[in-house]
Every structure is written in structure tokens, then in C-alpha cells.
Amino acid sequence: MSNMELLPVLESEAEPCCPPLDERPLTAEEAERTARMFKALGDPVRLRLFSAVASHRKGEACVCDISDVGVSQPTVSHHLKKLKEAGLLSSERRGTWVYYRVEPAVLAAMGAILTKAASA
């Protein structure tokens, strides 16, 4: 007998940061926000950390599970802070560890920006 419980999937109420590039020109504010996101991902270590969080099971990762990216722990913390400041990650402290997750609207918005522009 299993004691597993199915949990409902919650819909995200988060709005994408900006429209697809082929929908309309970005406003100055949308362009700033989008540039911050892509600038944060322009660093190879940050891109690896973002990828590690995004691909981690359950959609979140403990910092202890993703810190093996070839740099020191303080540097990992710095890069995670930059990803949070860019709006790419959110975090939650649980005891002594911090868990990171990618905001669902971020992946949707980045995908829409790149996919529609590339297929045009």
C-alpha cells in the first residue's frame, strides 16, 4: 500500500515580462527588463546555474545540489544573486539551505520571445 498523495497543479498567475518580438515593438521598460535577463544569462556560470535549477526535478533545486560549477561557493552565491535580481529565479530558505526555482512566466516569456522571432 502506498501513502503517496496526488497534489493538484496550480496555475501560475505570473505575467510574462514582455510580448514576443514579432507582436509589437518593446517599450523602453520591457526592453530594459528583457536585456537584464539576457545579460544575466550571458555569463557561462550563470547560464549553467540557471539550467541546473530549471532542469532539476520538482522544479526547484537546493543550492547544495547545484554549486558544482567550477567556482567557489561565494562566487556561486554572487551569480545566484544576479539571477534573482534579473528576475530569473526566486528563492526560499528552508533551515540552513536555500532552494531556488525558475519563475514559470520567465521560461514562457523567454520561449515566446525567441521562438516566434526565430520562426518568422
Question: What features would you describe in this structure?
Answer:
The chain is an alpha+beta fold and 120 residues long. Helices cover 49% and strands 12% of the residues. It has helices spanning 28-41, 44-55, 63-66, 73-85, 104-119; strands at residues 60-62, 89-94, 97-102. It has a 3-stranded antiparallel β-sheet with strand order 1-3-2. A hairpin with a 2-residue loop joins strand 2 (89-94) and strand 3 (97-102). Helix 2 (44-55) packs across helix 4 (73-85). The longest helix has 16 residues, at 104-119.
Mean pLDDT: 79
Structural class by SSE content: alpha+beta
Order of helices and strands: HHEHHEEH
Total DSSP E strands: 3
The termini sit apart by 52 Å
Radius of gyration of CA atoms, rounded to a whole number: 16 Å
Low-confidence stretches: 5-15
* Distinct helical segment count: 5
Sequence of strands across the biggest β-sheet: 1-3-2
As a percent range, the share of helical residues equals: 40-55%
Percentage of residues in strands? 5-15%
The general outline is: elongated
Main sheet record: 3 strands, antiparallel
